[in-house]
Amino acid sequence: MVDALNGLIVLANFVLIPATAYGAQLALGALGVTLIYGILRFSNFAHGDTMAFGTAITVLVTWGFQALGISFGPLPTALLALPIGIAATSLLVVGTDRAVYRFYRKQRAAPVIYLIASLGVMFVLNGLVRFIIGTDDQRFTDGERFLISVREFKAMTGLAEGLAIRTTQAITVVVAVLVVAALFWFLNRTRTGKSMRAYSDNEDLALLSGINPERVVLYTWLIVAALATTAGVLYGLDKSFKPFVYFQLLLPIFAAAIVGGLGNPLGAIAGGFVIAYSEVLITYPMKRVLGYWMPESLEPDGLVQLLSTDYKFAVSFSILLIVLLFRPTGLFKGKSL
Amino acid sequence: MKKVLLASVAAALMTGGAMADGHGAIKLGVSLGFTGPLESLAPAMAGGAELAMGEVNAAGGILDGKMFEAVQGDSTCIDASAATSVAERLVTSDGVAGIVGAMCSGATGAILANVAVPNGIVMVSPSATSPGLTTAEDNGLFFRTAPSDARQGVIISEILAENGITNVAVSYTNNDYGKGLADAFESAFEAAGGTVTINAAHEDNKADYSAEVGALAAAGGEVLVVAGYVDSGGSGIVRAALDTGAFDTFYFPDGMVSEQLGLNFPGEIDGSFGANPGTDSNGAQLYQDMATAGGFDGTSPFSAESYDAAALIMLAMQAAGSADPADYKDTLMDVANAPGEVILPGELAKAIQILKDGGGVDYSGASAVELIGPGEAGGNYRQITFENGELVVVGYR
């Protein structure tokens, strides 16, 4: 019995907890991508860099707060700076929409043209973020580091294996749940949210029933800015902020959105967790876990690792391929590509 | 701008003409990674090499009044093609008589194979430590004042054995340096009866190392050997290992040992230990004073080795009586090793005089140079440990 518990704790410490936090971050990112796809009808490749921009601003404001001596007690100061980051990102994305996307919307351009335009926006943002904060790694976490550390856990339970939950991991999951709940309430209960869904379902019918398209577009961008900045800041708090890493995050985020079904918010969340869990589980060697769970005679000698950790991104790619082959609309019936 | 151009053209013409009649400056290439993942070390290394040349020039040069001139080239660290083309430029367009460099093992191997050997140019690297370079095809042209990591692998294995550790996990940065060191250590440690539970790579500059640490933890081990860089993935691995409680004692090879490590993990790595190239000889202290007077940090890694690399080339030329690489490549080992009078930093003028008078020198320099095998430093290591969050020197070996 104790062995089974020890095995479970090893699994939780190295797989379940990190994967849950990572999944929450991916889900928030994928929600932004899926909303743009559903309502504005294009794949926004600039999303990773939008996240980086929001995080960069939040990091700068966090440093300002720290210099002024403002802190958030045991919680990271960055959470206080988050609203300012969201405001700045909102200005940025609405500005981009006015400057770039609105032109193509008036032309009723094909989605692929939008996609290429977003690629251009991505490169501009890429440079902008590096211009603002540089290319280096930035750590901006402060406050209490652990909710529960390995040593405390061992002392508390008397088990051989320890479990650590970082404050940032807990915050990530809590904030993600709150944001998703608020988003679903907004989409399902409010007038604006309903008009957004109507516009997404059938643009022409929505226009006929008197919905103002510019208003829908504006609200979409505001929500996307909030989601992207929150996702970026949570990822940066939990790990660290580096512009290039955010650019690379685009891949698992798109994989998550497509696996869940593009345009379907519920799918984006499920997709985020599917990608995160498979990335971590497939590259995790099960030796120690199985050592606890199997009878002594069956204990494995090897590492029982399916793929080396270098192949993390390959996992998201493979899942993407499999889903596209067998269920092109994704797990939760989104729009097909 | 025009004037500068004119002046440099004129200068080039003059040196070109002067070279022809044998009274001009001898050019030495200083080809280091001025940009790239170790760029923070390059200025103090170039400073060391140029300090040695300045010292020889102040003493009236070698071979009856020939002065030295340093030509810098950016060999980067990880871009082999950039390193090759910059070395090509140094040799064909600047006409250097020898190269101090390159910095990283990958760039050094590329320059050696593509430029130095085809053109017959002597290369002395102050910092390339990959064991692969020991057996590289070099026609006797390649030397290094840094020890091979094969030696470091043995040192690590000895230190671990003295601490009674027989079971370790290894994480290395995925490049020539990390892979070479990890493999050298694994074979030395297993030959000594130890067990390496896992020997896994990590990529630098990632945000998150929990998956890598998960694999290391699953394999287990009393100590984690982190063959990485302190400003990059190495510290990331240590952070993740501490956070998840996977390891609490670490061994740090040369890429990790620095004051910065104590600042990154205040009080969290007490009892962890390591070693990096270093010596307690008088030369090291003398060199540091000279470097401080010259306005750069002589304690910076491989700065002393750079001074020694340049000094060895110049003394070998004096001993051979020629600045032709084909001649002085054979005298380089002689000036570096006994017999002869021991030469410390700041005594290059004396060494030149001794050689001129037909005597022998045993260049010890800033890093207690002793060249072994195919012309690489035997290696002196400084053993350290962390106590109360401070880096403490335990001894030298």
TrEMBL record, chain A:
Membrane-traversing stretches: 20-40, 52-72, 78-100, 112-133, 163-187, 216-237, 306-326
Main location: membrane
Taxonomic superkingdom: Bacteria
Keyword Ubl conjugation included in the entry's annotation: no
GO biological process terms, semicolon-separated: D-alanine transmembrane transport; L-alanine transport; L-isoleucine import across plasma membrane
InterPro entries recorded: ABC_transp_permease, BCAA_transport_permease
Membrane topology: Multi-pass membrane protein
GO cellular component: plasma membrane
GO molecular function, one term: L-valine transmembrane transporter activity
Subcellular localization, as worded in the UniProt entry: Cell membrane
Keyword Hydrolase tagged: no
Keyword terms, alphabetized: Amino-acid transport, Cell inner membrane, Cell membrane, Membrane, Transmembrane, Transmembrane helix, Transport
Family indicated by similarity: Belongs to the binding-protein-dependent transport system permease family. LivHM subfamily.
Protein name (database record): LIV-I protein H
Organism: Thalassobacter stenotrophicus
Lineage: Bacteria, Pseudomonadati, Pseudomonadota, Alphaproteobacteria, Rhodobacterales
From TrEMBL, chain B:
Keyword Transport attributed: yes
Xref: InterPro entries: BCAA_transport, Leu-bd, Peripla_BP_I
Keywords in alphabetical order: Amino-acid transport, Signal, Transport
Top-level taxon in the UniProt lineage: Bacteria
CDD domains per record: PBP1_ABC_ligand_binding-like
Stretches assigned to the Leucine-binding protein domain: 26-334
Signal peptide per UniProt: 1-20
Family: Belongs to the leucine-binding protein family.
Protein name per the record: Amino acid/amide ABC transporter substrate-binding protein, HAAT family
Species for this entry: Thalassobacter stenotrophicus DSM 16310
